[in-house]
């Protein structure tokens, strides 16, 4: 790694530059099942899948704040939650914006962002996706 360039914590999970971030998933070409993170084969029928863009917005289904020592260099406390994606019929488990740990409410609209957050498996700083409260119109 050269200069200040940070790598994603994992490849193939999301795309984006921080302001426009979208999740990457998969679609089974036989049964239509959608998955996140993406899978090469559908776990239901073992058909090869296609990569699909899952968008970058959703609604908070459930959340919790974790106040024990966080893994991977995340800030303490940190929040995680289940998010119902707007563009696809998926409920996913994701990290929530550490700057808004106490602000999350069930049913609130969320936008996906990515930024320098924590460290990767090798201990190097990395980029992670997270949901943050949607901007009000």
UniProtKB/TrEMBL annotation:
Q: Which residues form the ChsH2 C-terminal OB-fold domain?
A: 52-112
Write down what this protein is called.
Rubredoxin-like zinc ribbon protein
Pfam families registered for this protein in UniProt:
OB_ChsH2_C (PF01796), zf-ChsH2 (PF12172)
User: ChsH2 rubredoxin-like zinc ribbon domain spans which residues?
Assistant: 22-43
Cross-referenced InterPro entries: ChsH2_C, ChsH2_Znr, NA-bd_OB-fold, Thioester_dehydratase-like
